[in-house]
Write a structure and sequence with these properties.
This protein is α+β, with helices and mostly antiparallel strands and 183 residues long. The chain has helices at 23-30, 47-62, 110-125, 140-148, and strands spanning 8-9, 13-17, 67-73, 79-89, 94-101, 130-135, 152-163, 166-176. An eight-stranded mixed sheet has the order 1-2-3-4-5-6-8-7, with helices on both faces. Strand 5, helix 3 and strand 6 (130-135) form a beta-alpha-beta unit. Helix 1 (23-30) crosses helix 2 (47-62).
Length: 183
């Protein structure tokens, strides 16, 4: 029996399973140097890399290692970005969150709106005790979103990531289930 993907609706958004129909918007994000500035991941060079990313994301849900939602605008049906929980550690009940929004949709508080059902899902359905986020210290918009959702900066790790022959720092944010208050 196939697992049922948990879709959510908010006032303006539908959080749904990735599909190959999302490939163009995801490719726009994952192939754009300014969009990927703080992600420390290789840029997608072609649509096949994006399709592989989508397929791996879908597989992660069915393998119980993570979940990514496409963020779709209710009013237009257009995908605006994605949000997820991955690196789910079932022994310690910890998962990592992350997100990306297309530049056309920035400044509209979309990620903030999408975070609430993702946090609820992580704590209530996945039975996580803690959700973390690994953030580039210079990514101020991401840090603000996390802080608005009661995440706490727990550690500043120097030279934590080696990417493109350079070291990058990380700030690890954490949110414990007992500290989370629905906003």
């Amino acid at each position: 029996m196939k697992k049922e993907f948990p879709a959510f609706e908010t006032q303006r958004l539908i959080l749904r399973e990735f599909s190959h129909q999302d490939k163009d918007i995801i490719h726009d994000i994952r192939s754009n140097p300014s969009m990927m500035k703080y992600m420390n991941r290789p840029l997608h060079k072609n649509l096949q890399e994006t399709i592989d990313f989508i397929d791996n994301s879908i597989r992660g849900f069915y393998d119980s290692t993570g979940i990514n939602w496409s963020i779709e605008m209710k009013d237009s049906g257009i995908a605006a970005g994605y949000i997820g929980l991955w690196r789910i550690d079932r022994d310690n009940n910890i998962g990592e969150t992350g997100f990306a929004i297309h530049p056309d949709f920035r400044g509209k508080k979309i990620i903030g709106e999408a975070m609430l059902p993702v946090i609820e899902y992580g704590f209530n359905r996945e039975k996580l005790n803690k959700i973390i986020a690994d953030v580039d210290p210079e990514n101020i918009p991401c840090r603000r979103i996390l802080e608005k959702h009661n995440f706490t900066a727990e550690a500043h790790l120097r030279d934590n990531i080696f990417f493109l022959s350079k070291y990058f720092d990380s700030i690890i944010y954490g949110l414990l289930k007992r500290d989370w208050k629905q906003l």
